[in-house]
Amino acid sequence: MELKDAKAHNNQHELVAHRGFGLIRGIHDPEEVDQISELHIRDSDLFVVTYPKSGTIWMQQILLLLEAKGDVTAISKPDLNSNAGLMPWIEVNDNRQAFITAPSPRMRVTHLQHHFMPRPLSQKKGKVIYVARNPKDVLVSYFHFHKVANMLETPKDFDDFFKKFMRGDVFGGSWFEHIKTWYSHKDDMNMLFMTYEEMIQDLQSAVERICSLLGLELTDEELANVVKHSTFNNMKKIPQASYEQVPSYLLNHNQGTFMRKGTIGDWKNHFTVAQDQSFDHIYHNEMKDFPLSFIWDIE
Ligand code: PPS
After folding, report:
1. Which residue puts its alpha carbon closest to atom 15 of ligand 1?
2. CB within 8 A of 103, min separation 6: which ones?
3. Residue 142 CA, ligand 1 centroid: distance in Å
4. For residue 135, which of 54, 228, 66 has the smallest C-alpha distance?
5. Do the domain assignments include residue 188?
6. Which atom of ligand 1 is nearest to the CA of 259?
7. Which structural domain, as residue segments, surrounds residue 106?
8. Fewer beta carbons within 10 angstroms: which end of the chain, N or C?
9. How far apart are the C-alpha atoms of 97 and 94, rounded to whole Å?
10. Residue 9 pLDDT > 70, yes or no?
11. 115 is catalytic
12. Count of the separate structural domains present in the chain
């Protein structure tokens, strides 16, 4: 979620429907967003694509560390509110123009749906990493983030948010549509599809796969440093990575932290039996033809 330059617009909480996707008023300009598809793409460009709360900032941290050969001081610049400054959201106002002139490698993050993205990506120009997370944990993480983020509507209660998420009535739209559409375009693109759960289970292998996608060569020691500085506990200690320095008009730090639990299966502490049954019913209808399955807990 983009967290800067929204001072004048926070607390408006308004999603504006645009070409089948809800943009946040004051943060996204529909005309600007429409121009993203016209961007020229270099082979070295990389887009991290996620549905919100799926591990965007984690992937960002790994990529920045890989580029810095594991040197955490290089990505911990005190003048940045968050590392969103180092890897901006392409859909946020003013970021598209900066992308055009930025030096390579241009790395950007996005929560947008596929139809907004630069067309050359579908001709195998540039690279895409799609990070997916089991949607029960996404829902729980997003519920808590709605309480913290001033640009998102504070949920009435968990059940109300549960229904909104299942209807796709949140920024990011339907989780089901997001993953199915992006996955269906996997073979048109240079795409690495990863899950949050596989990163939790074997961070070293995940980092090695990302390193090879980037075509970087790091020593064993440098790779070990990338892994070390991208664990949940270590990221939590880095203010730029943990969003601790994001000003309080954007994130209400009294309501919770961005680096909340970082685990698999927290949905079990939130879902009622009825919610779980309802979720499973919808999930099986929506995902019956989807070729991959998710890890729902770590036991
Ligand atoms: S956002 O707002 O959409 O950009 O959020 P996003 O970065 O996609 O997801 C936030 C969740 O990712 C967790 N996180 C991590 N988990 C494990 N290890 C590491 N290193 C890590 N870094 C971030 C973060 O805690 C959020 O999940 P929850 O479940 O709320 O803890």
Report:
1. 262
2. none
3. 10
4. 54
5. yes
6. 25
7. 3-134+171-249
8. C
9. 6
10. no
11. no
12. 1
